[in-house]
């Protein structure tokens, strides 16, 4: 509306010439040139100072591609490639996060904005989409990268292992988790493991055994709080109604799921159902109550494991009560 | 106690030769070098003894020279260099056995420095992401060089048990890199098109050749007991390293990869032993905190700097370089913004 008036107030145009040979139509800043033409292109810098949102984005994308192409980026010792994760992987994952599963987060104030903590959640859904969506959720809420601990199968498979590493995940073992916590990272653990992610549909929202409680030992040793997390909705994405054990054994997988659509519909059966998700973060459970030799006291560790498990189970029930329907 | 007389095995190879050069510059030291071939380095004061450490006569060398410090750098990593896998095993394992036996009988020996490798940890996705020294290798990569190196370490530990007066330093080096050193990995990066495993991108870690020599030098002079990982800070992905080197990679599916691996091996271009192919799938990273804190050496080159130094000075043929990439970037930027302004995108700036 006021474009013509604005134009009238700004008579000076840039004296530069674009790469196409036409006169530059940008506003002149200092010295009769626009910002684009005033700054000489320097090597290893962004090629031009961006002048609009579009050009800014363009130069950002091109700069990103160049750094990818010349290897000029940094990864941490565990292999987290921050730039790749933030610029490519997380934006792609936000699509199913926002549009497919419409993830709602509750209690995000319990996620520490800095310092180490262990996030412990229930595990479900045949494929670990719940872990992936929690990574997105934690990044949405805090901007932090959740360092998830994955099964060695996930790290061994081609592409899966590579992508898992580059987005900051690592093998579920004591050494790695302790090292990450000591470095002040947020670590994500799914103590049910394959027992949880591959359980039949009839057992939905019933927490399985929490392994041997190794995660609690690590948290106690590192003196970091445990944040219980209940994920509701992931149970319904691929309802498991059967398990072809011989095929699983043949392929070396812990289970070979049969869902209403898989393997009946072939690759189409891999499309998860669009259930509505609610991720609830509970109050941190402190792990430094007794004192010195906590990590060596099995009784304390058992009780703490039970407490974490019980808390998550109660959170699951509570969230399920408030849920209107599976898909809404 | 400061060392007086030092014996270096493998003196004709890069690290042994460089260490001898460095040590002989110190007038307080007498340096003896043992190997089968003539040294490649110009050595002025080092006394070269042509001897085979596999031969029991090595005990005569150790006793006659009256050395107080032995630096064992003769473990070979590649079968072709030794003349076949059987020969390689003999040089590595039997050679080390004879050398330790000789040292055990030489009361003058007070200090033993062993050049080992992080390959002893193996390369496997079910192992921790970062290896620290107390981690005992699992059942993985128990073949070839890794197996030899682990066995040599075991002989060293047994020797140290029998001779508690000897201070034993074991240095587990990551992959060496630098403008001068020649290893399977430096040759790998020299290939015109580099085959990689499809769907895998290992994290790798380097130690610069000058840092490696400085670490061996410090171990020889100071005699710090213990086992230490030695590597530059930080990690690189293999894909990232290849981009930095201006190389294109050819990702191949692992079963075919093994085939190509063996073809490349047989062609003699790159001499990889089979367990090193695992390394190209899963990589291996060692923790260097103990090197910095207890051993007291902070590598000058980080992994990335070491690799940069290698690609800058080792005359690696680049398929593309950064300047080209920047030119492309500018051209695409100009083209797209011209197209965009023609079609009216981004008009709000005007």
Notes on the protein architecture:
The complex is a heterodimer of chains A (328) and B (350). Chain A is α/β, with parallel strands linked by helices. In chain A, 39% of the residues lie in helices and 10% in strands. The longest helix of chain A has 25 residues, at 298-322. The two termini of chain A are 42 Å apart. With 350 residues, chain B is α/β, with parallel strands linked by helices. Chain B has one domain (5-321): Rossmann fold (3-Layer(aba) Sandwich). In chain B, α1 packs across α7 (209-222), α2 (58-65) crosses α4 and α4 (85-104) runs parallel beside α5. Chains A and B meet through α3, α6, α7, β4 and α8 of A and β12, α8 and α13 of B.
Brief digest:
Chain A is an alpha/beta fold and 328 residues long. Helices cover 39% and strands 10% of the residues of chain A. By secondary structure, chain B is an alpha/beta fold.
**Rg calc of chain B:** 23 Å
Outline type of chain A: globular
Question: In CATH terms, what is the architecture of chain B?
Answer: 3-Layer(aba) Sandwich
Strand segment count of chain A: 9
Head-to-tail CA distance between termini of chain B: 77 Å
> What is the gyration radius of chain A calculated from CA atoms?
25 Å
- CATH architectural designation of the largest domain in chain A: 3-Layer(aba) Sandwich
Uncertain parts of chain B: none
The structure class of chain A reads alpha/beta
CATH class of the largest domain in chain A: Alpha Beta
Gross morphology of chain B is elongated
Describe the SSE topology.
The complex is a heterodimer of chains A (328) and B (350).
Chain A: H1 3-9, H2 35-38, H3 53-70, H4 82-100, E1 104-106, E2 117-121, H5 129-142, E3 146-150, H6 152-156, H7 160-166, E4 170-171, H8 174-182, E5 186-189, H9 194-197, H10 214-222, E6 226-232, E7 242-243, H11 245-251, E8 257-258, E9 278-281, H12 298-322
Parallel strand pairs in A: 1-9, 2-5, 2-6, 3-4, 3-5
Antiparallel strand pairs in A: 6-9, 7-8
Helix pairs in contact in A: 4-5, 8-10
Chain B: E1 5-9, H1 14-24, E2 30-35, E3 47-50, H2 58-65, E4 69-72, H3 79-82, H4 85-104, E5 111-117, H5 144-162, E6 167-173, E7 175-177, H6 184-190, E8 193-197, E9 203-204, E10 206-208, H7 209-222, E11 226-230, E12 236-237, H8 238-244, E13 248-252, H9 254-267, H10 274-282, H11 289-295, H12 303-313, H13 322-343
Parallel strand pairs in B: 1-2, 1-4, 2-3, 4-5, 5-6, 6-11, 7-10, 8-13
Antiparallel strand pairs in B: 9-12
Helix pairs in contact in B: 1-7, 2-4, 4-5
């Amino acid at each position: 509306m006021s474009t013509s008036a604005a134009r009238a107030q700004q008579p000076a145009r840039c004296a530069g010439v674009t790469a196409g040979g036409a006169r530059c139509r940008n506003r002149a800043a200092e010295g009769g040139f626009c910002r684009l033409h005033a700054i000489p292109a320097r090597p290893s810098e962004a090629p031009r100072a961006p002048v609009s949102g579009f050009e800014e984005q363009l130069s950002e994308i091109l700069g990103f591609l160049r750094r990818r192409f010349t290897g000029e980026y940094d990864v941490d010792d565990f292999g987290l490639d921050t730039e790749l994760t933030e610029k490519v992987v997380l934006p792609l994952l936000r699509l199913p996060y926002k549009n497919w599963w419409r993830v709602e987060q509750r209690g995000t104030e319990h996620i520490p904005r800095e310092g180490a903590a262990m996030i412990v959640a229930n595990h479900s859904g045949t494929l670990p989409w719940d872990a992936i969506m929690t990574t997105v959720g934690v990044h949405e809420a805090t901007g932090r990268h959740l360092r998830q601990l994955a099964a060695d199968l996930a790290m061994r498979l081609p592409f899966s292992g590579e992508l898992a590493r580059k987005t900051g995940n690592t093998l579920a073992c004591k050494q790695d988790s302790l090292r990450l916590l000591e470095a002040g990272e947020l670590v994500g653990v799914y103590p049910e493991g394959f027992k949880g992610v591959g359980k039949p549909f009839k057992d939905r929202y019933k927490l399985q055994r929490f392994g041997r409680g190794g995660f609690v030992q690590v948290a106690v040793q590192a003196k970091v709080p445990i944040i219980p997390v209940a994920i509701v909705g992931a149970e319904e994405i691929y309802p498991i109604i059967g398990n072809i054990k011989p095929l699983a054994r043949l392929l070396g997988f812990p289970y070979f799921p049969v869902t209403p659509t898989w393997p009946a519909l072939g690759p189409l059966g891999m499309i998860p159902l669009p259930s509505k998700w609610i991720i609830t973060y509970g109050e941190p459970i402190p792990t430094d109550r007794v004192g010195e030799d906590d990590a060596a006291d099995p009784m304390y560790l058992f009780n703490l494991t039970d407490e974490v498990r019980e808390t998550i189970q109660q959170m699951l029930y509570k969230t399920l009560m408030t849920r209107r329907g599976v898909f809404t | 106690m400061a060392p007086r007389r030092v014996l270096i095995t493998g003196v004709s190879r890069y690290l042994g030769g460089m260490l001898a050069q460095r040590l002989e510059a110190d007038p307080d030291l007498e340096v003896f070098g043992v190997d089968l071939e003539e040294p490649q380095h110009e050595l002025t004061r080092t006394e070269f003894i042509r001897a085979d450490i596999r031969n029991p006569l090595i005990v005569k060398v150790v006793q006659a020279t009256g050395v107080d410090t032995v630096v064992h750098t003769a473990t070979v990593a590649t079968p072709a260099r030794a003349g076949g896998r059987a020969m390689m095993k003999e040089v590595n394992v039997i050679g080390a056995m004879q050398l330790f036996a000789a040292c055990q009988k030489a009361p003058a020996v007070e200090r033993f420095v062993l050049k080992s490798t992080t390959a002893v940890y193996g390369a496997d996705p079910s192992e921790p992401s970062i290896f620290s020294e107390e981690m005992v290798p699992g059942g993985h990569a128990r073949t070839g060089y890794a197996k030899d190196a682990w066995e040599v370490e075991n002989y060293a530990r047994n020797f140290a048990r029998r001779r508690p007066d000897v201070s034993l330093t074991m240095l587990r080096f990551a992959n060496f890199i630098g403008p001068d050193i020649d290893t399977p990995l430096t040759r790998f990066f020299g290939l015109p098109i580099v085959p990689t495993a499809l769907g895998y991108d290992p994290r790798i870690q380097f130690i610069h050749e000058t840092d490696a020599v400085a670490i061996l030098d410090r171990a020889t002079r100071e005699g710090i007991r213990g086992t230490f990982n030695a590597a530059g800070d930080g990690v690189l992905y293999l894909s990232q390293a290849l981009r930095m080197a201006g190389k294109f990679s050819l990702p191949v599916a692992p079963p075919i990869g093994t085939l190509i691996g063996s073809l490349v091996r047989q062609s003699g271009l790159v001499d990889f032993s089979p367990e090193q192919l695992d390394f190209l799938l899963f990589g291996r990273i060692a923790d260097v905190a103990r090197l910095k804190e207890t051993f007291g050496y902070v590598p000058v080159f980080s992994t990335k700097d070491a690799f940069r130094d290698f690609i800058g000075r080792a005359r690696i043929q680049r398929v593309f370089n950064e300047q080209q990439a920047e030119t492309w970037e500018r051209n695409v930027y100009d083209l797209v913004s011209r197209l965009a302004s023609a079609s009216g995108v981004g008009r709000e700036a005007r």
